[in-house]
Write a structure and sequence with these properties.
The chain has 180 residues and is mainly alpha-helical. It has 2 domains: 70 residues, no CATH class; 109 residues, no CATH class. The chain is built from 8 helices and no strands. The radius of gyration is 19 Å and the shape is elongated.
Length: 180
């Protein structure tokens, strides 16, 4: 659900601002976020953090009467993930390794764990690049570019990163493991 909302947030905001003033858009965003929060809180508290952020942004946007506040949400989310990657790397508790353990059908060997941990810094820099682009489009005046990048554009950065990670693992890491 969070991914779907992040996909449609920017285009919906873009279209709504063509027809409504900023305060009306903030009110709609607030009520939709409250409904989303109601469904999410039933699942878990972690699931409700995302709609809570949308609720806060809609309130601040309403009282600030500023589109830049609403426009900042993708940037805030990307900063959060950048910080999460960095913290997980520094704490030597890679979030990527956590997900790999959770979703892997086979046991992960020590070499693979070290490789995954080391790749966390790669993903941190990828998140940092995304946050930098998000910041640029936040201050850039073109709302169409913002809507396109904030909805689907950033996925291409991570897809490209995933392809690079896959190729590096296949052609360098696995060959090194086999030769040892």
């Amino acid at each position: 659900m969070n991914i779907l909302i992040s996909l449609i947030y920017a285009p919906v905001l873009f279209v709504c601002l063509k027809f409504f003033d900023i305060k009306t858009v903030c009110i709609y965003l607030f009520f939709i976020s409250v409904i989303w929060f109601g469904f999410s809180i039933k699942k878990s508290i972690k699931q409700s953090l995302y709609p809570t952020l949308y609720i806060l942004i809609s309130i601040i946007g309403y009282f600030g009467n500023s589109f830049y506040i609403l426009k900042s949400l993708p940037f805030i989310i990307s900063l959060f993930f950048t910080a999460l990657m960095l913290i997980s790397y520094i704490n030597k508790d890679s979030i990527i390794l956590l997900f790999a353990r959770k979703f892997s059908k086979k046991t992960i060997c020590k070499d693979e764990e070290q490789y995954i941990y080391s790749s966390t810094i790669f993903w941190f820099f990828l998140c940092l690049i995304n946050s930098s682009i998000q910041f640029f489009i936040l201050v850039y005046k073109d709302i169409t570019f913002w809507a396109l990048y904030s909805s689907i554009g950033w996925y291409f950065i991570f897809i490209f990163g995933g392809i690079l990670q896959y190729l590096h693992r296949k052609f360098f890491f696995l060959k090194r493991i086999k030769s040892v």
